[in-house]
Amino acid sequence: MNIAFDALPLLGQKTGIGFCESGQVRAMTRLHPENQYTLNYFAVKNLDAKKQDLLPYLDSHVTARHAFCSPYGYRILSSFIPVPYHWFFGKNQDITHFFNYIIPPHVSGKTVVTVHDMVYKAYPDTVRARTRHMLDLGLVRSMKRADRIVTDSQFSKSEIIKYFPHFAHKIRVVPCGVDTEKFYPVQNPDAFRQIQKKYHLPEQYFLYLGTIEPRKNLENLIAAYADFVMTHERPAKLVLAGAKGWLYDSIFRKVQDFNLQDSVIFTEYIQEQDLCTLMSYALAFVFPSVYEGFGMPPLEAMACGTPVLVSDAASLPEVTGADAVVVKPYSVQNIAQGLHLLFTDQNLRAALGQKGLERAKEFSWEKSAELLYQVYQELLPEV
User: Fold this and answer.
1) What does the alpha-carbon distance between residue 167 and residue 31 come to, in Å, rounded to a whole number?
2) What is the number of structural domains in the chain?
3) What is the pTM of this model?
4) To bridge 151 with a disulfide, which of 28, 77, 156, 274 should be the other Cys (CB 3.0-4.6 Å)?
């Protein structure tokens, strides 16, 4: 097969969508070198940096193809004028896969699109207006164009069907994975000291890792942490690690409202090479999000042997199973109880850490890539 991937999510600071694509692309190109793969990307500036971003994916059977055009300019223009995608990337692909919701017009060959979740429908107030507008404008057309729609969990499949039942026959579930060569238990005090200095970390901390934005439920987490602090003489601090998303001002204000400026630490974006150590040395990983299409960070924390607290919402129970402390996302008291339990019960932390390691083994990028490859084979059964 000649398989093309939209490489835009792989460029720059990757978000969850980029890490999902990265894991699946790396594993598939390694497992199936009999195919030819192309990484398509639009770009008009920082070309050298973008080429560097794609270098780890390239091989004799994996090449990159660049079109000199603004990716966002093309997306906006093609929303109103059907400028053919094949004008930029040709017609020799058997399959082109777009990992970020939208398939542009006139793509040659079969098309696959990943629709990670329906948060813009379920919780529209937590999504950036520009993103909502883009999805309102383009998602239905994209799913019509798609030969297959891939999503990350059974929960997300049910959500897509709830809002767009006429596309149910196209949907296939391909869970994300975790790279256990990248995420594993670290016992290296010197490495921890380095990132401790780099990110101004305390000795003992609860860790959240993800975008700083409303649907991550950070205001309730901060309120719960405030309750937790009141009941302990020397409480662990709370580290909120990740880049700012949008509508984050109220999250920072919440810390001030509870006078927790010395106890809640914001780190901004964490470099990839520091993630494993950061997670491994956390007392526990806390992720009480109200809506996730999959939820990769809790799984990555489990792979590091770190006990995990998650909400019982959306896809998170699919990911963690019974191997985490599970709380009600809208109950500040319940989240505080979870923090207290993890802080005081060392045996529970050890048990959850061990169970998490086993749970993480069930989600590999190799399994994910093979499931995705089966989707491609459905489209081209004779190949």
Assistant:
1) 30
2) 2
3) 0.91
4) 156
Q: Is the pLDDT of residue 15 over 60?
A: yes
- Residue ranges making up the domain that contains 201: 189-360
Q: What's the token pair of residue 347?
A: 């045996």
pLDDT of residue 307: 98
Query: According to the model, what pLDDT value does residue 245 have?
Result: 78
Counting other chains too, the contacts that 102-105 makes at CB distance below 8 Å and 24 or more residues apart are 102/75, 102/134, 102/138, 102/139, 102/142, 103/141, 103/142, 103/145, 103/146, 104/74, 104/75, 104/78, 105/78, 105/145
Instruction: Using DSSP, state whether 205 is helix, strand or coil.
Output: strand
Nearest to 238 by CA among 276, 269, 271, 209: 209
User: Using an 8 Å Cβ cutoff, are 294 and 156 in contact?
Assistant: yes
Query: Do 232 and 134 share a domain, yes or no?
Result: no
303/179 Cα distance (integer angstroms): 8
Tokens 């069907």 sit on residue: 161
Query: Do 235 and 229 contact (CB within 8 A), yes or no?
Result: yes
Q: What is the pLDDT of residue 86?
A: 97
Is residue 346 one of the residues assigned to a domain? yes
Mean pLDDT of 308-319: 96
Q: Are residues 17 and 152 in the same domain?
A: yes
Q: Which residues contact 37 (CB under 8 A, 6 or more apart)?
A: 3, 4, 5, 25, 28, 29, 61, 62, 63
158 & 221 share domain: no
Q: How far apart are CA 202 and CA 166, in angstroms?
A: 51
Task: Please tell me the predicted confidence (pLDDT) of residue 14.
Answer: 86
Average pLDDT, the chain: 95
Secondary structure letter of residue 248 according to DSSP: -
Q: What is the CATH number of the domain that holds 218?
A: 3.40.50.2000
In the block, tokens 């799984």 appear at 299
CB contact set of 188 (below 8 Å; sequence gap of 6+): 277
Q: What is the pLDDT of residue 302?
A: 98
Give the span between the Cα atoms of 88 and 69, in whole angstroms.
Answer: 9
